Amino acid sequence: MSYLRFDKTLMANLQESLPKEILRTNKSGAYSCSSIVDCNTRKYHGLLVVPVPELDGENHVLLSSLDETVIQHGAQFNLGLHKYSGNVYSPNGHKYIRSCEWEKLPTTIYRVGGVILKKEKVFQHFENRILIRYTLLDAHSVTTLRLRPFLAFRSVEVCTHENAGASREYAAIDNGIKTRMYPGYPELMMQLNKKNEFVFEPNWYHGIEYQKEQELGYEYKEDLYVPGYFEFNIKKGESVVFAAGVSELKSNQLKKIFDYEYDVHVPRTNFQSCLVNAAHQFHYEKDGENYIIAGYPWFKCRARDMFVSLPGLTLAIDETEYYEKAMKTAEKAISDFMEGKKSDIMMYEIDKPDVFLWAVWCIQQYSRLIGADAAIKKYGKLVDKIVDFILQDKHKNLKVHENGLLYINGRKCAMTWMNSEINGFPVVPRSGYVVEINALWYNALMFNADMLMATGRTAEAGKYTKQAEVTGQSFKEVFLNEHGYLLDYVDDGYISWSVRPNMLIASSLEYSPLSTPERKKILDICTKELLTPKGMRSLSPKSGGYNPIYQGGQAQRDAAYHQGTVWPWLSGFYLETSLKVYKKSSLSWVDRCFVGLEEEMNYHCIGTLPELFDGNPPFSGRGALSFAMNVAAVLRVNKVLSKFYNY
């Protein structure tokens, strides 16, 4: 029995099966995504979604879906599924599904009378190409398979409609066709590894609806163009591979490519292996540079997310090489910023005031897991440059005050990870002295001092140690209140008393200005008010403005984004604080905290973790389908736990 498996009862129940999605990426920015019954429920869904640099560099849906029809004795059985107006689903191909499972590849078994058909999908690494293998497991008479492609050729952010500008032209290629609906787009090559007949039967399918977009208040209806269909006979035991990509191949290569991709995929057999596979989906390589995508399907590489995620997605699963490649790219972006140069590195939001502090934290994890000597050799100069850059007030939105604390201006523009805005203004205007920024600052000063001390630069190390002493003392004076927890931010007399998980970042750091008893008090209040089965709430239900349900229109969702919703990545800091306070006695408790997240492997986007959850039961998954910081946090804590268990 596969770890990720869904039987015919669940697949036939659209209320249960449609919310479950499958994501595949190729490490080049492209992806393939749909529901487990192959009915698209988002405008972001598609069999082949690729970046188009010639237009805007954004992702575009080329091939939306592919409807299969089984033909026997002249009778047609359509395996496709689309939603139309009036809550009508057609042609209801999901009723033929007997099972869907994902071990190495997403695999669906259909049964139509005496016909049993297996469908397996793979997204080729570093190539914008989806491959689908059809295997006829059983049949008692001549069987014909018809494949009907639904084309979109549009941005993931809009819907398309029938128009006179869409080209119907196509040309024959090796066992297939190529076509391009609009200028500026790449040609879509559709091929099979078996001789087939392409029947040109152009038609627009009108009024296809995307349920998720409708729920979110966006445009949700579109028309899709079908140029015709491919048709071929298939024998019992025979496998036929269909490919759709932006470059042509020799059709006799398709089976070989599919077999190779099958062999290199790591099976999803448990919670850990699912997360490892998910970690690889965030890798992005372009023009010789290496990045971490913040999440799918709509995020790019954001600097903060990359630094927070990188240790968990690489070092925690013993993939040091990719960490070093990504940090090499990041170092270029950091240097360009510090030198005031325009950078061609595609890391967004590197100007945010906490980003460089997260970069130091990221390097610190390398030091912990790989070794201090290696960290000093590779990144010692970078850490020193960053700390000195901040200390000299060279960052436009980081000012070192006389009390040693960092001050930021976030009143008119969101400057921390809590970045939701309405009408151009932050929902939570975290400004002034921000708790995690100053905790990370203290940590960076101490870490840099230790690295300098290790290389014999004692005098320089002493300078940063003295600065850290001032910062640490002021940190406790400003943030630690009489109730035993940390204020979230303090700005020119305004004090944010809200109980938020940002204080856990301060209590979990290797270098923290907090004592063990102070950490324990923080841990206790976070356990009582913030902890849920899915992670940490972004705001306590006892604090003003608690808004835990992330649904409705854009403004309604933005208002709830950080006002009580649950963010699993913060659990990493909660669990690390637990281990620092209670040592090995907390291991069983830490293990139990993961139970609620493991069940998510079968929900939302299967095999990975979504961006956030509602703050109240049933803690529904929301936001992006797969989120790097959440996957990374669990992998990182798993690594820490393994060290404790092997102690």
Question: Could you explain how this protein is built, in words?
Answer:
The protein is of the alpha+beta class and 647 residues long. It has 18 helices and 35 strands. Helix 5 crosses helix 18, helix 9 packs across helix 10 and helix 15 runs parallel beside helix 18. The longest helix has 22 residues. The model has no long low-confidence stretch (mean pLDDT 95).
SSE arrangement:
Elements: E1 5-7, H1 8-12, H2 14-17, E2 21-25, E3 31-35, E4 46-51, E5 59-72, E6 75-78, E7 82-84, E8 88-90, E9 97-102, E10 106-112, E11 115-123, E12 129-138, E13 143-155, E14 170-173, E15 176-179, E16 188-192, E17 197-209, H3 211-215, E18 221-234, E19 239-245, H4 254-264, H5 271-281, E20 283-286, E21 289-292, E22 295-296, H6 303-313, H7 320-338, H8 355-369, H9 372-391, E23 399-400, E24 406-407, E25 421-422, E26 425-426, E27 433-434, H10 435-454, H11 458-479, E28 489-491, E29 494-495, H12 502-508, H13 516-529, E30 531-532, E31 535-537, H14 554-560, E32 566-567, H15 571-582, H16 587-592, H17 595-598, E33 612-613, E34 621-622, E35 626-627, H18 628-645
Q: Return residue spans where pLDDT drops below 50 for at least 5 consecutive residues.
A: none
Largest sheet: 9 strands, antiparallel
Spatial shape: elongated
Number of helices: 18
Strand order, sheet with most strands: 1-9-10-11-12-19-16-15-14
> How much strand?
25-35%
- Structural class by secondary-structure content: alpha+beta
Q: Over all CA atoms, what is the radius of gyration?
A: 26 Å
What oligomerization state is this entry in?
Answer: single chain
Taking the alpha carbons of the first and last residues, their distance comes to 34 Å
Q: Averaged pLDDT, please?
A: 95
